[in-house]
């Protein structure tokens, strides 16, 4: 049975790579990005881990407040149980955390950004300043980060 008579597409090393593949290949630097892909979290995790990276998923739809977001970040990043669950403690823990090759997929970031833009901005800055790649997925207010699509 022949499924496709078209030519086989070859992927060449060193060619342009964009989106998540570019990030995981090291062609796109870790930073904060808007990401519009609708992949299931398990599919994203599989791709990220296959590339030798770690995925930390934060579900902002079910954790929309400052306290809930901090709790969800602590769980996703496997912060120690004794961490203080506040912005200063997050900053301290991120300094001690191995953030190399870690992607934070923040689904539903919009509710916190709308409710408390200042806190959202601080959290985003703390995450990116520590070297994490942060993918903001879902609707939210205008933020000045590039798209990763």
TrEMBL record:
Barstar (barnase inhibitor) domain sequence ranges: 54-130
InterPro entries named in the record: Barstar, Barstar-like_sf
Pfam families: Barstar
Protein family: Belongs to the barstar family.
The name this protein goes by in its record: Barstar
Organism per entry: Nocardioides marmotae
């Amino acid at each position: 049975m022949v499924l496709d008579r078209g030519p086989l597409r070859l992927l060449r090393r060193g060619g342009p790579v964009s989106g998540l593949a570019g990030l995981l290949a090291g062609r796109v630097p870790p930073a904060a990005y808007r990401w519009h892909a609708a992949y299931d979290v398990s599919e994203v995790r599989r791709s990220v881990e296959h590339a030798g990276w770690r995925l930390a998923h934060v579900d902002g739809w079910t954790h929309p407040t400052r306290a809930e977001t901090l709790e969800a970040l602590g769980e996703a990043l496997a912060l120690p149980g004794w961490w203080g669950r506040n912005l200063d403690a997050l900053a301290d823990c991120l300094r001690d955390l191995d953030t190399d090759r870690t992607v934070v997929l923040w689904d539903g970031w919009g509710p916190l950004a709308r409710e408390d833009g200042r806190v959202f901005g601080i959290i985003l800055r703390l995450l990116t300043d520590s070297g994490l790649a942060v993918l903001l997925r879902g609707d939210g207010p205008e933020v000045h980060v590039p798209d990763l699509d």
